[in-house]
Amino acid sequence: MDPADLNDGVEQAPPPVLTIPQSRMQRITATFVNPIRKALGYKDEEPVEPQRQIDPAHGSYTAFAKLLRSPPINDRDKRHVFFAAMKSMTALPEDSPMRAKFNKTFIDIVNNQKRPAPRYLRSPAYHASVTPQPYARSADPSSVSHSLPDAASVFDGLLKAHTFSEHPNAISGMVPAFLAIVSLCLFRTKEDDPEFNDTSPYLDLSPLYGSKPEDEDLVRQKDGRGMLWPDCFFEDRLMFLTPAAQALLIVWNRNHNSIANRLLLEGGFPLPTEDSFSQQKLKEQDDKIFRTARLINCAMFKKVIVEDVLKGLLGLPSVGSTLNLDLLETTRSDDKPPKVNAPEHRSCIEFSLIYHWSFLSSVGDIEWMKGVMEQTFGSKDIADLTLDDYDNAVRNYKTEVDSNRRRRNLPGLLRGDDGLFDDNELAKPGLQAEDSSPGTGFGLGYTTTFGLLVDLVGAIRADPCNSEYTREVLTEWGYNECFGKSDIGSFGALLPKVLSRTLPQNYPYDNTYTLFPFTAQGPGQNALKVLNEQYNRARPCGTKILKTKGAISQVLNNPENYASCYSHNLKALLGGYGFLLGFDTKKLHDADELMILHALLPDKGILSKYAEYFARTADELILAKEGSVDREGSVDVVKDVIEATCSRWICNAMASHSFNWYPPFLIPPYSTMYEQKIPQAQAKYSRHFESYMREYCPPATRHNEAQTLGFPSYVFEFNEPDQAWTARARALKKSRRLMDDIAKTVEKTLATSEETLSERIARVYKEASGLPVGKLSPTPFLSRLAMKHRDTLRHFAGWDAIRNTADLKMLELFRDECWKPLPETQTLSHRDQLRRSLRLRELEEKFRSTRIAANILGLCIMSVMMTEVCARAVEFYLIHGGRDEKEEIIRISKAEPTSDNNRKIMGFIREAQRLALPPGLFRVARGLPDGGETIAQGDGYPEVVVYNGDRVFANFAAQLVATNDMRINPHRPNPYIHGLGFHKCPAISLVDGVLPELFKAIFRMENLRVGEGGRLTGGGTGGKQRSLVRRGTPLRSLIVKFDGVYKPPIRWKEPQSMREKSEWWQHIVHRIKLTLKVVVILFIILGVSILFMKVTPAVPQVHMPSLPRLRMPSIHMPNWFERTPQDAVCRQPLTAFDPWHAETIRPGPDGKPRPIEYTYKSRRPHRLSVVDIDKRDMQLELFVDGQSRGVTTEFTLDKAVDCGEDLRRCLQERFSAGVIEIPPGKHTVKIAWAGKEFVEGTRDIDWGADRVRRFEMLREDCS
After folding, report:
1. CATH class of the domain defined by 1133-1262
2. Which of 427, 486, 528, 1203 minimizes the number of CB atoms within 10 Å of its CB?
3. H helices of 546-643, where?
4. What does pTM read for this prediction?
């Protein structure tokens, strides 16, 4: 809304609006609390007019401000200015200056400092925060009539409900449950003196923590972690407290422990152990974490009131409006304690009368209450109950209820053997209720609404804890948690984040039951009909946990009834196609698995290359971060070593073009550097490495290292609730771009790569025989993937079978009309038949591109999961593992690599995974009988009944972690660590081959230990709370320190088993040579053909599937390209280390074109090829070490000829091109623009409006 429009509508006649009769509760409330109105200075009003809808046209700021300037404040203005103004405020942009004005005026109206302070019934204590304090009274006793009707008559005539009626605004049963906790926070009448309030008048979550230190002792663990005993709370007024309210207190208990756990892990606190902590130190750390966690938890509780409750009080809808009130605007500062500028807040006895929510009760709550009354008072009629009956019942209840909060059960809920409540049962008692209650918003009437606004706002603004709301006290994370803004799809509501954090499986981050907990949902409810497809509207079902091998195997091997729950997210990321873990069709799963394994592991020798790459890359990354001989080094092993190594392997082995990762990594001069032991040599290498990164990896490219890291968190829902919504949007946007890039790379590689017949025969024979196929490169991987795509299509009986595969039915390209068979009566013309045929061919090619791209990106996503396994293993042995195990790992890491050593290291990693991060998978039940299916677990575990829609969690922890065997044994067989069923991890050999090298590189650092800053996770519930159904969030950071200079091995050596295999392969090679003599004639013919191609001018020969290599006719080359014997330094075969890619020349500040330069050091010569692209308008001059090597071929300037990036067409059209060879050693190569567009008579460029020129370049290593 434009600020200029906010002053419109004040003097205009109101437009006609729909009228709704005032509810009975509003009439009752207005009659019951008239004394409060008089005490607040309101005039006597005529009977309330029928309620009308809020008209935003009357919500101008001018009219709103008049409410403040014209005392007494009239809350019953006929034009609803107050409510209309708040609605106008929610329509303003977040950064609108008018929003701040509305915010301040709201505070001034509701928290008016000129209003007379309530008078205490007794003399108060010296400080308002000390309990107990006497109640205060707002109403003047002299204004109250002494002739009052009988209380029973008032209740029966005005307050007693005779029938139940649903509210048209669809308020859920969560509303009265939460408001009940608010009431318990503010009022606790002292038993022996009813004029005193035994709790503070502030929203301090006293029902959870208690009001005094001795109360806190009943619920605190005091073990150095600042946590509460799991699933317990202090409140003992439970006789008539609904199960939903009690369940919400458990939720806030879990939220506290989640906060405390994060403070412990990220606040630099050491983990409390008996050996390292004195009792005094333990107490100090526990108190500090507990106080901070309580501050943050209470601040979040108050924010829920501000954002969620006040929105309902003000009659604003849950969907589409963001209130975002800042009630501490004038009292809070980011970096210094706030200056409290609010009137003193007191517990008013009149306000206590309006904090009762029985009129909001749902049908379930009413039936529960009837049962409690019957159980408590027997068959005695409620009308006959006396006050003595009630007092006796309360006393009996207190004697019967267990005073130990850790053992106390909830109504209808029993604790498990671990002392915790089951998440599914905890979410049932009203938290996901569909019943609605009566008003607009909460429908409480004018007087109750304004009374609650005054009391709640006053309690928040006058809270003494406001002085502690600084970043220094709350920590940076805690401050942002309390006062930061995050988009979680709930239009500002905060309670969804708490529910999703503490009950993640029952409250998914994108579910409407999570995001709008105060709104009733289900059949017939339309409050949320305006939401888009981003929201999941299905009511969350329970999660059933399976713990035995037999039960898990029964589920994982039955995809027809237990579908993968990862399918939706994988398809959303991967262009609608999906990936292995999301497929429930075994034929499709097996076909794609075969395609991937053939491309990734074509021979046994490739594992040796992968392992060498991991070892060298990890060493280089650590070298770049190390210290000197006399000081310690520091490195984040998760971000700077583990993630970086895996990401670079992904880029170099699978998708270098797509991830913009062109050059290989430099191998540091190990032998000379460490034999000399000169620190300056290491510093020189570090500088060289950083220079290399700056030259070859621009900032946008370096960020691509972690480009896939957000995808696994989205697929497996590891993101924190306040991050999941935006993380999903970020992941989907990023995946669309990556899928397009990968598809283009695949098409370009397969269309322009060159592979002669002899090369293809040799490659296919090597792959079929298991021989090593060459250097680590993504191009053979892409080629093998494409080749296997064609082969695996034969597994299906034609395209109709592929399209009808259950996992592919919704693929968008299969919805094209061309796939549908023609009716028998319809015939097509020849042209239409040709058009249809071409369209089908286009769709088939698109399917190939989509499938290959989806498998590449899907494989990248799953490969990133290796980082989590390795990171958790490093964390485990640095923090939790024994000293002997750590010393053995260090010994093996520094020893010569052997197959036995690597196998033992992998055993240590598996043990860490078994004990710290046991695997688990989810499935969703479908197609079961109406009565569900009973799964017998055995081994003493109870049967599990599963119904359609239930999520089933296959928890391997019970099989992997026996309570009587927590020892670390690297030789222990772990048959279930890779999962069960046809979704079992397919690349076990890859993980076993490369992960030990990465792990050993880390433990080669001297005196390795956790450094300052410790470790950083994505959060977590903390404590001993039930987390079997949620794997820990990824370890994002682990800072370690080490001493001296890092010393990797002099050279990387193959493990003995790999060397033995290589020797065996040499014998096989000898036998293959004999076999190849049979085809010698074929090679002679092939050689003659190649010679003929070199002599005859022709377009570049492009074959598949290696990197593009352009054969340029010699007649078009400049004189400097005609080789002489001394120039012919480059021998075949060539290996592309910097594939074809575009470079851009732009004018510099002086108006002259800036050349492209690079410096390269190599023991071998390398070849540089350049071709002009786009328009035919550029010639290049090439320099080596400042000496000109000539210009590219002559051309005819014609800007009408445009070949784009099609190199074959560019050469056909005689665009300028050239090739030079650079000798071994370190050389600087410059590529400069050489014409022809000059201003006539000058050397100034004349490029017109187009200020860039592009060319493609290729760099290849010679043999």
Report:
1. mainly beta
2. 486
3. 549-556, 567-573, 586-600, 605-623
4. 0.71
